[in-house]
Write a structure and sequence with these properties.
Blueprint lengths: L1 E11 L7 E6 L33 E4 L2 E4 L9 H5 L9 E4 H11 L5 E5 L7 H13 L7 E6 L5 H7 L5 E6 L4 H8 L4 H12 L3 E8 L7 H14 L4 E5 L17 H13 L5 E2 L6
Parallel strand pairs: 2-6, 6-7, 7-8, 8-9, 9-10, 10-11
Antiparallel strand pairs: 1-2, 1-5, 3-4
Helix pairs in contact: 2-3
Length: 284
């Protein structure tokens, strides 16, 4: 059982409670034009367009397959900008045991592990196998296992993941179906149902909502968020703000989300009695 991994963070304090090891899996079932990590969306097809873009010669095309030499890479990310399908030639294939070894190595500093992306549930079988192995290991069983997801997974998939998952951080990109389709290329019914499933299981740690000017910053969207959250019951809500960091293509011309507007939305949510509401701690 292997995972196609875009990046590993050995320590993170912003991807769930406490200090966490984070796996960013490669591949996503959404195609968000405003994605802040667009290079995690596609899967490398070994076209070779990235090879001449690498000034350090860290990439080569060998027998029709991209080879990556991490020792020569200076992380300039020019290869990512050259990729025509929003993929990365710098991914690594990790086994469950590879990840367990990383957890053991860093165990004294960790409270848990978070699987993010891309989209974590695109590689749901690996996530299930990894979390089950953590729970079965006496040395690691105290670590909490979290999923950061867009929610585009059906009930059967969640039924397999929930027994080994301790928390879900779930993104709702928009409530109006047309707006959601414009922002992701997909319907939002699965995401909404996923939030309900996670909450019913007592594992919805955080509901996230990205405020994008002209798309999801309207009174109608904030009112819909309030109504949806009330239907779920007590839940932590995190408002995120669209910024330009990492964004490519036409969405670079979208305006940034003003901090004052996010704070105003947060005040409205708090006034509605929804409980804990979190706003961005860093503005780029």
């Amino acid at each position: 059982m292997r995972a196609n991994v875009s990046k590993v963070l050995r320590w993170s304090a912003v991807d769930g409670p406490g200090n966490r090891l984070v796996l960013f899996l490669q591949g996503c079932n959404f195609a968000c034009p405003g994605c802040h990590n667009p290079h995690t969306i596609g899967i490398c097809n070994n076209c070779g367009d990235c090879v001449p873009a690498c000034p350090q010669g860290a990439l080569s095309l060998t027998n029709g397959t991209i080879a990556f030499d991490a020792a020569r890479c200076d992380e300039c990310d020019l290869c990512l900008r050259a990729c025509p399908i929003s993929a990365s030639p710098m991914t690594e294939s990790l086994t469950v045991e590879d990840v367990l070894a990383m957890l053991r190595q860093n165990l004294p500093f960790l409270n848990g592990i978070t699987i993010s992306g891309g989209e974590a549930t695109v590689q749901a079988k690996f996530v299930e196998a990894l979390f089950a192995a953590i729970k079965a290991d006496p040395a690691l069983a105290a670590l909490s296992c979290f999923i950061d997801s867009n929610g585009h997974l059906g009930p059967q998939g969640w039924q397999r993941l929930m027994p080994v998952t301790d928390g879900v951080m779930l993104d709702i990109k928009a409530f109006a179906p047309g707006t959601h389709a414009a922002l992701t290329g997909r319907r939002n019914d699965k995401s909404l149902e996923s939030a309900r499933i996670a909450q019913k299981a007592g594992k919805l740690y955080e509901l996230r909502f990205l405020m994008v000017p002209g798309f999801t910053d309207s009174d109608a969207e904030i009112d819909a968020l309030i109504a949806f959250a009330r239907g779920l019951g007590p839940v932590r809500i995190k408002l995120n703000a669209f910024q330009h960091h990492g964004v490519q293509g036409p969405a670079r011309d979208w305006p940034k989300m003003p901090r004052a507007w996010v704070e105003a939305a947060a005040a409205k949510l708090r006034a509605a009695g929804l409980g804990e509401v979190v706003t961005p701690s860093v503005w780029l």
